[in-house]
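Quick log. Single chain, no ligands specified.
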Amino acid sequence: MSYKTILSVMETTSQSAGFLDHTMHLAHLFEAHVIGLHAESVTATPIVAPMEIPDPVSIQALQDAAEKRSEALGALFEERARKEAISYEWRKIITSVGYAGASVIDSARCSDLIIAPQASPDVSADAKADFESFLFESGRPVLLIPHTAKSAMPFKKVLVAWNGSREAARATFDALPFLKRAEEVEIFSVNPPDTTTVSSEMTGGEIATTLARHGINVTAVNAHADKARAATLIENRMSDSSVDLLVMGAYTHSRLWQLLFGGVTRTLLESMTAATLMAR
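-> predicted structure:
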């Protein structure tokens, strides 16, 4: 298993540093084709008037601004891709629905891996929800790069947050190309429950054995804490072990209108200290 088609989501020009370094590093590492993508949402703007009809001047101004942002990001991506001599293409998609558009989702679902930046704290809640919905409704593994990343480094130490769920299993096996290249992989379980088939002390043991059959240097560790401290426990483990990559499932509470991450997942995404691969 490898990543041969990587979708690189470009959101801001600040991604010229660590984010593009990671994208290009992965392109070389897996000899992959990279699709650079930016999606813009342009909606009609009503004017304050008795008719409340859309103002064509305002709409054109929004369209021009969207085009300008897309062109700047495209130029940034293409310049770096040419310099790195990788196989690439650029896609800009400007619609009334942005990342919810069918063409954007199709691009994601036809990729082996999506690489995207950590959401900026300045982004509105609605925009963040739309972006996260796109990432995790794509059905593909998503590698999130912290906005504090300065350069790309190999993922030598990997921590797998394991609870035996479908999402955790999906993320673990989607991460195999990284796990096989890592020097150390740890299966880390917080508050593992006793089940009819596995005791809490043995949680993580079977998945560790499975990964070991792939030639992966893997260990399994369990920890206990109250539910409110689960995310803190994972963060501390990552810091103590100098983890380069966190692998975990993405969990939702609601599917009615927008994606809402579970509490632990949300906390870890907001405080990202290392690249994080997620799947659901």
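The longest strand covers residues 33-41.
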